[in-house]
Amino acid sequence: MITVRPEPIHTARLTLLPLRGEHADEMAEVLSDPGLHTFIGGAPESAEALRARYDRWAAGSPDPAQAWCNWVIRLRDPACPTGTLQATITADDRGATAEIAWVVGTPWQRRGIATEAARGLVAWLRGHPVHTVVAHIHPDHEASAAVATASGLSPTDEWHDGEARWQLTIG
Asked: What CATH number is associated with residue 154?
């Protein structure tokens, strides 16, 4: 059973806040660029659709062996949302594996925000019973590969749905 719940995480420039339905209106704007979906698929969602999804995520996984941890990435100066971060933590015989992902809105890209958020998340995960951190990255998504590398993950020879598995063993 996994009992990990998202909590605020603070980095030098960011506050990672547990994601809730009330974040949907501002996040619909942050995630409105169709170009964000080039590598992750889909299309921008309405605030209503995001609110329903965020409420479902905040309620937690129905599987007691899995925890859903999701955050809004907020820049402190100027104070504004810039993206989202997630960790799906799954229990296994060694403790747990965390699969992480991030998305930063187009206006805030190329500022190191995704890297800072992902590093903050990996540091937070080290304080929990997580032994492996995993990210799946499209082979052409150089920016996400750079974020993963800066966060300590390395590419493996494994693939899942056309994406390379990146991994960090932390315990």
From this structure: 3.40.630.30
Could you give the residue ranges of the DSSP H alpha helices within 21-92? 24-30, 47-59
Whether residue 2 lies inside any domain: the answer is no
What would the pLDDT profile of 117-171 be if each residue is shown by its tens digit?
999 999 999 999 999 999 999 999 999 999 999 999 999 999 999 999 999 999 6
pLDDT value at 44 more than 80: yes
In order of 4, 105, 127, 148, the CA distances from 12 in angstroms are 24, 19, 19, 19
For the cut 80, the answer to whether the pLDDT of residue 69 exceeds it is yes
Tokens 């995704």 found at: 114
Ramachandran angles phi, psi of 50, nearest 5°: -65, -40
Q: How far apart are CA 59 and CA 42, in angstroms?
A: 23
Contact (CB, 8 A) for 84 and 70: yes
